[in-house]
């Protein structure tokens, strides 16, 4: 008897009454279905590229683990251990209107929506969020397929990112070792195998013409998706041996040294995928490959090289037409820079076009760099996998503009590269000496390859011999010491290799010896012996006359350049040359002429004459030059060099060397003499009141005395004329947080604007008053600025209409600082607050209001500009009914407690609620109180924000009572002094100072107008 349960409920049967044994047709059916599934799976896996000896065993393995592969006719499942949550920076919904899509796409969209609903990837939604959708083509060889994507760009701005780190690509490639077989696995719609927490699904909502939906699985396009997927895969594969499989988001590569080893590793990975319920895409999986593409690289047993599929793109890459095209090309090449020796130096011309404010000019150097990078990338060096059981070798070299390094190891008697690295020098580094550049290259290379060499003994190879003695030096320069100490934690030895054997790192400029080989003593010609100076410095010519003290002439500065490192001790074996053969003449203005050589003793060799006349007195500089020599002094090509070729040698090898000949410094100890020199070189018309830096540079080439730089600085700072007439870095006092009023019209600012053109009513000025809290403005046209006129206008048009204010702020204008106005304020208990002299920031808001007033009047006045007073009421209405940008309310609303009726909207009837007197009073009171509180808070926040922003670059002027200061002159003529004074500081109050002027009158001055007098 067979019993079938046709319901969804569990049915219990009393086994004591009937003997039962389970027999299930489902098991038989499942067996048949499994066989069909295996056959379908095998047909989808590409066995054509799999070696014959591996096919049978791979089929068995895939059959055993057929459930780890996804099937088209079955819904895609999710993992059983990881669920993703989404967090946003705020709770304001992101709602973006849908894009308009082609009508032809709608059928495909509906088809995919229905499939995703059936597969449980999406569900119907009532979320307030919405992101637009797009249909983009998939990469497919057979037929055109489409992918439905959601544009989450606006949502991504609010989604808090997942900080789980992605693996470093170069580390993954290095860890693969010398594997023989590779299999790449690809998860089917990897992101869709991660479920989203129910509370987070609302964020992923989108709409189509068929409805509003949200994702149940992690979608493509979210900024957290890649990192989340990496986290999930890392958790899934945790515990597996590190040399079995390597993960990068949805790319999995399984390696093996032999057939048996590779099958074992695949089985371990399949077992883990089954355990975590993760599904693979059989069509994209590739098994038992001897060479695979992984993360844009070709990986094989031989090593690593760029993806061959990119070669065609590189070959046909168009010449960049602008900076953006150049940036894209450099970024593309930069991905494969580890395969390109000397990458930084090659790409330097292209990178110059990407600098800030650089003009885009495509020249021959850019074209050459472009072509060279393309050629190098299409024929790359195969990089080896690092063997951490062998010793690493770092080879370095430096040129004038860049440095490069190669990490290598010895395989079967050959040094094979593991990685290349290079970088350009900064402008400051390019000015360093050769030995510093070479050491900087070693320092940078060791730190760059730190993951390989730290904790292991390795070798550093350089073609700069002095570096081999670096750690034996007793007193190296401080710069060398710092770099040396910084790499002492590493265990390495330095080996010297000749330049011709150091071709791997960046090639350095070397002396061109081909021309020198042709030199013959008989080729002596009359030429000027020259040394080309560095930069734009003026070259010194030596007089034809014999100096009185020739033995005191000496070389003042020698700056060794890149070319100096290739110089050797040139042996001038030309003592037999006659004077007429050495008749040096001036051929051009670019030569430094050493005519004194003509007057040497006839028995003295040219070599001795040069040594006598050109002496390097700085021992450290001499040692630096000597240590920079690379070529052997025994080279035969230097045995015979005529004096006539001295110019060519200098031009070629001393390109950036500056040799300055000058008389020794004059030592001064007498203070009166020093004062006289300072006066002569500063105060006189030929001195020109130079600044301390330029004056010191001028004097240090002639004189020398104790504390010379300090005494020059003190003298210049105490010069009264310099203090009055020169622009200096001025201090600007930090802004102060002022008290915000709590009531309307509690604090009012007042000012007078004009004169304007006289109107028909004889008005020429306007008095403006503004409430500091509400920003309500009152503008009153007046005939003149007399005290009585201004006082009458303020009383009639403001005080009698709005009541007296508690505080009235104004500048020091005579219309406000007089007996009439002060009497009215005293009678009405109004406290007057005056701004400091020439410091309009005290009433800054009103000053900005004047700007708005002038702009308004210019737009409406007639051609004669004599009707401006008729437009004043309209301006006041317009300003007071417009929301203020700081507190957000209209000034009218804060004063009268109601929203103003806009004249342009009178036709729009807006019924007001009906109140009785009591309710209206309560409503008005509540509205005024609440709006004023909020407006005051907005004002305070705005002040704090502006103060924090403004005070970032401000610094205070530190003054004490009794100090002398200069005051900046306002409204001066062009040739007038900038400052007047000095005056004595009597009192200091915050940012203001009380100063006693030349008439013994006390004036209140803001510190921004002051300059300290340094005696």
Q: In terms of topology, how is this protein built?
A:
Elements: H1 25-44, H2 52-64, H3 103-118, E1 122-124, E2 133-137, E3 146-150, H4 153-156, H5 169-174, E4 181-186, E5 206-208, E6 211-215, H6 225-236, E7 245-248, E8 251-256, H7 259-275, E9 286-289, E10 291-294, E11 297-300, E12 304-306, H8 311-315, H9 323-334, H10 343-352, H11 364-378, E13 392-398, E14 402-411, E15 414-424, H12 427-430, H13 434-448, H14 450-453, E16 457-462, H15 478-486, E17 491-496, H16 513-517, E18 554-555, H17 606-613, H18 619-627, H19 646-653, E19 661-662, E20 666-667, H20 671-682, H21 692-699, E21 703-704, H22 708-717, H23 720-725, E22 747-753, E23 765-771, E24 777-782, H24 787-802, E25 807-810, H25 819-827, E26 831-834, H26 844-860, H27 872-880, H28 891-896, H29 917-950, E27 964-968, E28 979-989, E29 992-996, E30 1002-1006, E31 1010-1012
Helix pairs in contact: 9-10, 10-11, 13-15, 21-22
Estimate the global geometry from the Cα principal axes: flat
CATH class category name of the largest domain: Alpha Beta
Compute the number of strand runs.
Answer: 31
> How many separate helices?
29
- How much strand? 15-25%
Q: Radius of gyration, Cα only, in angstroms?
A: 43 Å
Reported for the largest beta sheet, the result is: 5 strands, mixed
Structural class: alpha+beta
CATH superfamily (homologous) name of the largest domain: Reverse transcriptase/Diguanylate cyclase domain
**Can you name the CATH architecture of the largest domain?**
2-Layer Sandwich
- The residue-averaged pLDDT reads 73
- How far the N terminus sits from the C terminus, by CA atoms, comes to 119 Å
The spatial strand order of the largest sheet comes to: 15-14-13-16-17
Task: Examine the coordinates and then state which fold CATH places here, giving the name of the CATH topology of the largest domain.
Answer: Alpha-Beta Plaits
User: What's the number of domains?
Assistant: 8
Query: Which regions are unreliable across 5 or more consecutive residues at pLDDT < 50?
Result: 24-31, 503-599, 610-619, 624-663
**Helix content range:** 25-40%
